[in-house]
Amino acid sequence: MVVSKAWTLRQHFQGFPKASDFHLREETLPQPKNGQVLLEAVFLSVDPYMRPYSQTMMKEGDVMIGSQVAKVIQSYNPSFPVGCHVVSDCGWRSHWVCDGAELTPVLPDWPQDIPLSLALGAIGMPGLTALYGLEEVCEIKKGETLLVNAAAGAVGSVVGQIAKIKGCRVVGCAGTDTKVSYLKELGFDQVFNYKTATSLEESLREAAPHGYDCYFENVGGKFSSVVMPQMREYGRIAVCGSISMYNDTTPQTGPYVHTHMIFKQLRMEGFLCARWKHKHQQSLRRLMAWMTEGKLRCNEHITIGFNNMPAAFMGMLQGDNTGKAVVKV
User: For the Enoyl reductase (ER) domain, which residue ranges apply (predicted)?
Assistant: First the structure.
């Protein structure tokens, strides 16, 4: 028998999450049966989507949702031998028993010099989100100008680099000067600190006087309202997130986008990367190829210790991370 630790949602968040909203419990897991495996968490992910999903898809007392890279430590399933690593959506748990139906093996030829934690980042869901948002939603083309906000985050930093690989001009914004410097190192053409900018409108216009063909939206709220007038005709907007609104206790209202959408003939589309699940393996190999070729670089913000899951989650929501936020067990 294995005793597993699990972080649960003690109570639904009211505004920004608090440590008291979480509860750490222990649970004794059953012995794996035929066809099942026992997993041990190695790296766990904390992501912005967990905040709104917790409100709509979880009950108080549920284990916090999320992905992890786990090691198979006991197996009665020949598809998952002992010692292999998988990506699991079993949430904030240290161990778990499952039948393998929802497990995704890490790429079989994963290079030894690439951290396995990147299966939760650039070579995982955030990387796929960046790729599909650009290719499937924005249908981005060489020579176009792209704007991405929250650009130093797990998704935004990959978005900018893929756009550069595709021959685009990339404008990014972030909330600290350190993050601005990091994005310049990654090859972004123009970057600014939106928190210290005198005028967001003027900063956006100076970065791209002729406007934006594509906008990869991670922030929402007032930021989005300022961008709309600066979109070019037939512009495309991939709505990935709205982190500026996740902790609101009173819903934000207007300005509204309709006039700009009509007269500029814009296309705005929300998306989840699972829509293109049939392409995941091929897409992960493309991302890995860019990584090994040195075209894609990734920073990780690693927190040590399973007991620090809530702190890592709250830190990510307030922008402590540059790159992907991960917890190492």
Answer: 18-327
